[in-house]
Amino acid sequence: MIGTMQADRNARSGFLLAALVLAADIVTKAAIVGWVEYGTQHDWLPVLNIVHLLNRGAAFSFLHDAGGWQRVFFIAVALVASAFLVFMIRRPGTSRSEQMAFGLILGGALANMFDRTARGAVVDWIDFHWGMHHWPAFNMADIGITVGAALLVIYELFGRKQVRETNG
């Protein structure tokens, strides 16, 4: 009973984290759309620009110019991925670390799906660069997905082994 209550609390934490990523992404994209003219660049720091770009593709603008079918495809992928992530967060054997990571990824997937549904494309606005070399622009949803994926890798490499040794 106590283990089930703890698992439910951990799952709620994962969903709360997803909601926070989703909210942060929606708010920041609304600010960019409202205050930054499309296609413009504002130097903010020596290595950071604020931009307003639309990405009709996926990471690194994959399939950006595919002709329009990719919007429905990426919405479908986000729906399937989101259902899987909800399942993983709620699954009894999922660790708290994994639930947090899945929550970050879920929030990012939902946020970018929301953008594709509402705007037809994803608003990207963070532009890191070193001199003339620019990383592809991204947003808060992408940060949630990337940090969540990195946490899963770290957990798989170090955390799961530690859990096995503790329960051993």
UniProtKB/TrEMBL annotation:
Enzyme class: hydrolase
Pfam families noted in UniProt: Peptidase_A8
Membrane-spanning ranges: 72-89, 101-118, 138-158
Keyword Transmembrane helix set for record: yes
Membrane topology label: Multi-pass membrane protein
Reaction catalyzed: Release of signal peptides from bacterial membrane prolipoproteins. Hydrolyzes -Xaa-Yaa-Zaa-|-(S,diacylglyceryl)Cys-, in which Xaa is hydrophobic (preferably Leu), and Yaa (Ala or Ser) and Zaa (Gly or Ala) have small, neutral side chains
EC number assigned by the record: 3.4.23.36
InterPro entries in the record: Peptidase_A8 (IPR001872)
Keywords: Aspartyl protease, Cell membrane, Hydrolase, Lipoprotein, Membrane, Protease, Transmembrane, Transmembrane helix
Pathway(s) this gene product operates in, as recorded in its UniProt entry: Protein modification; lipoprotein biosynthesis (signal peptide cleavage)
Predominant location category: membrane
Compartment(s) where it occurs, according to its Swiss-Prot or TrEMBL record: Cell membrane
GO molecular function terms noted in the UniProt entry: aspartic-type endopeptidase activity
Annotated catalytic residues: 124, 142
Role this protein plays: This protein specifically catalyzes the removal of signal peptides from prolipoproteins.
Family: Belongs to the peptidase A8 family.
Record NCBIfam families: lspA
Protein name in UniProt: Lipoprotein signal peptidase
The organism of origin for this protein: Cupriavidus respiraculi
Gene symbol of the encoding locus: lspA_2
